[in-house]
Amino acid sequence: MGDNQLQTNKQEHDSPRPRQVAPGRKLAQTRKFKEKRDFKSDENPEEKARRHKEQELKPLYKELLYTVTHKMGKPSSAEVFTDAQLHQYIREAFTMTESEHEDLMEKVQNTEAPVYCLMATVKEAKGILGKDVSGFSDPYCLLTILEDEQESQTRRSRAKPSKSVVKDAASHDKIYQTDIKKQTLNPIWNQTFILEFEDISASFHLEMWDKDEEVSLSQKLEEIKTNLNSLRRMIKEAKKEKGTDDFLGSVVLKLQDLHSTEDNWYNLEPRTETYPDRGQCHLKLKFIHKARDGTLSAGRSAYINYCGILQQFVQAFISKQKSSAPWKGELSGEAQTLLELYATQNDLSPFLQDLAKWVAYSKLYQSLEVDSSVLFQQITSIEYHWHQQELPYQQKQELEDSLHGFLQYGLCLVAKYRDIFLPVPNATPKLHTLLRILVQICKTQAFQKLNPANVDLHDEIIHAVQRGTQEWFSMKKGLHQPMTKELSEIGSALSRLIVEVQEDIKHNKDVWNRVFVSAVQLDVFTVIYQKFDSLLAKEVRETLSLMEGQMEQPLANSLFPVYLSLQAIHKDKAFLQKRGLLELTNFHEHFRDALPYWLNQAFSTTQDRVERAVQVDQLQPLQSGAVPVKHSSSAVDLVACVQPICQLWEQLAWPDPEEAFMLMVKLTEDVCKIVVNYCHILKDRVRILSENSDHGSAINMLCVVVNDLEHLRSVLTRLPTQLNWTGLRDRTQSVIGESQFNNTLHSQLQQAQSILGREIRSALDTLGKQLNTDIETHVRSMSTRRRIPSKSTEDAATPLMHYLEQELHYMNENLVQENFNSLLTPLWNNSVKILYQVATHHPQQEGLMVFCQRLLYTLQCLEQCFHAEGNGLPLNALHSEDYKTLKAHLSHNAMSCQQLIEKFFERKIWEQKVFSGEKYGAVTLLTSYRRSDQRLRVEVLNAVNLLPMDSNGLSDPFVQLTLEPNHVFPLVEPRCTQIKSCDLNPLFDESFEFLISLEQCQVQGACLMVTVLDHDTLRMDDFEGEAFLSLKAIPGVAGGEADGLSLQPDATPAQIRLPLMHPKPNDDGILSLLESRRGERAAQAFVKKRRQREKQSRESLRP
């Protein structure tokens, strides 16, 4: 029977114990390996290559030829290669000539053939038949290899068919038996046997039997009691011969149908059809060689040969690759077939194969472009096999050296990750896989057992990164050494170095940090930032110490990029996972000497750009159309020029609050200076361009200048926001008082804005002067002596309105809205003044009414024009006091005499309403109007508190009733009451009726004038007082129209008490206006009558 314990390599029994690693050993230390060399290091390369071919390649070549010659089984790959194809591939991979191949082939053919063997591992079975009374079986397996003739002869020699083939056909020494597994239907063996054979046409036979042993009668009876179902089996056993095992099934496989390695479940086949389903058996089969010719490779182990063959095949594959992509573990079909055959024939375990691949691939990784995933896959396989199989001592040492060496090499790559794994999408995954490989190596049981020293990969990677950062910084510093010893060149060199560092920090933060965190949970950004912090702080201190006391503008200019880069680097501290004291915290202190030069550079550069912008400005609007841009190019350029000064404030971000305030004061002052200087040079520019231009072009350029200044004013308004005064105020409130802050900064801004405002007003005044002159000319041209129809009034105002419409439309198109509104206000006020001056200085009274009608119409048109339906000036701005005075003056002068008289009585009615007190007495009336017969009924009831007009201290009063105005009631005569002698409180009780129409009652100013007189016989009656009652206020007059109201019921009379009034002499402008119209007789008569009343008035006697 064959031994069930397979030995991979006999050397492991005689090998010493693994050597212990010193606990204090560090990965950074370099291992020293002793390598035996058979040639001198200075040997000729050709001789060296020839010796390598003879000693290394040809033995491997013969091993492969021997493998192909004595191959067994089919390859596992789907593609099948002939011997000629395999020979051709071997020759190309080993670069052998045809003669060399023939020579080596002849040597291989002359060697002794190996012993062909089938290594069969019986793993387990399931679902087999239960042959015992208990329902179970005691299974065991018999294994052998039979030639076809041998099996046929056995069958023919039997008298009757037999289930047993192995026992009868093979000799006892060629039959292998497994252990017997008691009472089971799912036995597990895991036993391996090596079966020799000579012809591949033979068959592998496995028979499974149930072991039967003699059992006492009492035991069988006990089984029957416990299980009645076993009675049938008992009867069957009674018929069977004593000690005969029961057949459970067999597996028969043709060797030539097998692959070189098989690992499958096979059905147990019956000899008869009684029980067709007999379960399955799990077998692992592999063709191997025994007693291979030892002269092929000079006694080297099969594992060493496998490593050499694998490395040669990989190099051959990579050399034939046309693309530059990394090798991802692919091999040609011929190479895979050959490796499989060699490993199988030499019984190399999967562990040794994976170990060989790891060693080969890890070495290739250090010299060729190999994808990291290939190594990751191999180290994972080694970890899996470590728990399954024990390695020989020599392979353990090789694995230890390989893992430790690759770990050192990987850390070297990590130290140089900036140069090897660029921050691009196709490179960072390689770094990630490499880091995962290093982590996996340190996690493996193999590494931990073979390297008992406590290795902290996290710390090792940190040290590697720090070491690599130091080396990278030193390399960049040497690369950016100044070409001369000039201080400005030294500053520029420092700037270039810091820019490189800034870019590296950015890549670490944005790209590499994600890789390190994901793979090894290391915040590499914090590691390199802290390292760069100390390196840069030292470099900046040493460089700027050379410049103390020698600061000039060129040197300061070279240091500004240095400051900006350090500023950006210092801001990245916000992304640090661990905060601590940084050496660059107060880096700005080294640049105090350069700060004034930076400000001066920004101011002078901006000033030069502004001057050049004005010199090329043609003072034309930048854009017209739906969205016009009404300022010129220099205004836009000025904003662009001032913007860098605002950006300078953001770039500096000066941390000291008090110094930052002084810096803001200086920047604000510079901006204001630039703005004021722009005003001056812009005025000079418009003066130069206007010398040879027509009037229209000059006006257009002046409009553009005004727009430029207005645009600039808006820029100044936004300056506190752009410079973030609010944020500065919050920073400086502990060191700068609020009053000092506002007085200093806001006063500068207000001063510049006031200068701009004056310049804008001056330019607008220049534009308005010509308009005012033209408006006055048009207004004066409307003066005429002739009375013409009202149609001529519109015609007379048309030239002025056409002129204003044209000019204002032009100004609106060429001025921004703010300046156009600013122009409208003084233009409106001046227009009102011109109209008033023309109206009040009319040379002759003749035609004054018509002229004032024209002026009033013109004023109304101007109001509509300047208001522009709400798009122009608001009404409250238009209706100034001057406007109200002018409108009243024109309204009165434009009225006819009758209209003026109506206006006079309207005012008297208003005075009556607001008059309080009865110092001149009062009269009581009872009034009503009957629409049915159009009669106004007035009943004079009494008068009270009259003034004594006679020498006896009494009066003889009577009341006169008159309907006014007279032109409205020309046919109505005045009515008088009886005279009451010597009575200051007379009682009249007299009624009067007036036949008047409702239309007459509703005329503007229609009233009942009540005059109380003192009767004198020899003199003119004395004036006691007068009162005015609006006819509209009498019941029956107010409400409804005249038509269709005659059928309405008469109104109830209303009693009213009217205080008596006295007119104020020369207090009425209407009378003065009527008095000036000498050609109007009715007007003159009216005025004369009213003047007489004024003379009788006691108001003139008041102090």
TrEMBL record:
One of its GO terms (cellular component) is exocytic vesicle. Keywords: Coiled coil, Cytoplasm, Endosome, Exocytosis. GO terms for biological process: exocytosis. PROSITE patterns: C2, MHD1, MHD2. Residues 35-55, 1094-1103 have a biased composition (Basic and acidic residues). Pfam families: C2, MUN. The keyword Coiled coil applies. Residues 214-241 form a coiled coil. Its main location: cytoplasm. InterPro entries: C2_dom, C2_domain_sf, MUN_dom, Munc13_1, Munc13_dom-2, UNC-13_domain. The keyword Cytoplasm applies. Residues 99-242, 919-1046 form the C2 domain. It is found in: Cytoplasm; Late endosome; Recycling endosome. Residues 1-55, 1084-1103 are annotated as: Disordered. Residues 560-682 form the MHD1 domain. Residues 794-904 form the MHD2 domain. Belongs to the unc-13 family. This is Unc-13 homolog D (C. elegans). The gene is unc13d.
